[in-house]
Amino acid sequence: MVLAARTRSRRRSWLLGPAVALMCLVAGLAAGAGTALGAQFERGDVFLAASGGVQEYTPAGTLVQTIPGSGGATSMCFDPSGAHLILPGVGLFNDNGGALPSNWASATPGRCVADGSGNVYVVTRDASFVWTIAKYDLKGNLLQAFHPAPFAGEGPFAIDLAPDNCTAYYGNSNSSPVGGTGFVGIGRFNVCTGAQAPFFGASNFVNDLRVLPDRQVLTTDDPNANLFDASGGFVRSYYPGGGPFTNSDTLQTLSLAPDEKSFWVCCAAIPNSSQPKQVFHFDTDSGDLLASWIPGDATAADGPMSTYTPPALGDANVERHVDAARAGTAEAFRTKAAFTGQLSRLHLWVDSSSTARTITVGIYAERHGLPAQLKGEGTITAVQAGSWNFVDVSSVPVTAGEHWWLAVLSPRGGTAVSFRDGRRCGLSVQSSGSHLADLPDHWTSARLSLSGPLSAYGS
Known about the structure:
- It is a single chain.
- By secondary structure, the chain is mainly beta.
- The chain folds into two domains: 2-30 and 312-458, Jelly Rolls (Sandwich), CATH 2.60.120; 40-307, YVTN repeat-like/Quinoprotein amine dehydrogenase (Methylamine Dehydrogenase, Chain H, 7 Propeller).
- The protein has one helix at residues 2-31; strands spanning 46-50, 53-57, 63-66, 77-78, 84-87, 91-94, 99-100, 111-114, 119-125, 131-137, 142-146, 158-161, 167-171, 186-190, 195-197, 208-211, 217-220, 225-228, 234-238, 253-256, 262-269, 277-283, 289-293, 305-307, 313-314, 321-325, 331-336, 341-350, 359-367, 370-380, 387-398, 403-409, 417-421, 428-431, 445-449, 456-458.
- The strands form nine sheets. The chain has a six-stranded antiparallel beta sheet with strand order 30-29-32-27-34-35.
- The longest helix has 30 residues, at 2-31.
- The protein is globular and about 65 Å long.
- The relative contact order is 0.13.
């Protein structure tokens, strides 16, 4: 009976595969694309805003291109999929630098962050110190405006989203409140409910910040970059020259690298302010300086930065369809590697309705259109529902264009795990075993379905 079931599943995969590809192709054509003006953005490249436009650099500091029509950018961010570069006050661009129709040119410029549901948040402050977090759609249409608790400091301003895609962290860059009033440091505001959240424990001023997947927070505070734990406790500082700076015009903006275990920061003059400013790459845990280089355009050292960090494979968007797998039964979803590299971390969006306290995620190689051998797995033991969760896995090499399967399991004895997936552009298979405590080393399939992609990805 098992052999017969597997034979039928393989036959169905040959039939369903072309149908899924056709539906996804039609959806992609319907979405439209900008004019292909430059090279496809490469994962890990660093983007800096210069006077002539946004410049793309390799991690080694080689200039790849300057994006036409991007001049005047004072902030930038990518959506989690990497399909769009968003420049508030300037425009919207696709992943090879082509301009897309949008209303972003009319938006108020400010630091921005995009969630996985098609929303973009821009933080600004006017001359009266009225703070606004404006919520836009991806095309730059204003949806809602929030007014979080104010700071009395000065810009530039910082914003990032926690893994729940709701809690916005925001901050200013003045250590002395104007007029002796106002909070100095990092505020938090729930952009899903419109409620003010408790201020973050870090009390120093910030030029920029990033919330890590484990909810630690990286900041730049001129002159240093700093790491704070999830409660706001100070962990360490990062010094490009081996110690604190003495010149005032130093580290301003930062961005995470694709591995999420290192970050880029811009820009400081070493050893003194008369030297050209450099971009630096740090290991987050050790504080080691991994690389540094001087931008080709000196004006880029004074503007915003971002790193191109789409998933190596999988879907970093929060899909709308809530799905579930009962405890003991695994489900795997097909995906294709978009980039070549080494995976060391798997992420899963756990829906707010999920009650599973332990979740195992894994990645399977494909054979005959179905998952085959388990290549990496890990167990999330401190599950947070309504949020992205992650687990580190042994390094898995992937090559762009290869098909893989991301699997989810709530081990037997637990409760069902709820997650998100799409309903038109993917394939999924349930395991033949229904009392699994662990993901099997070699997958045996039961039911094949048209569903996906799973809101899960590898980095």
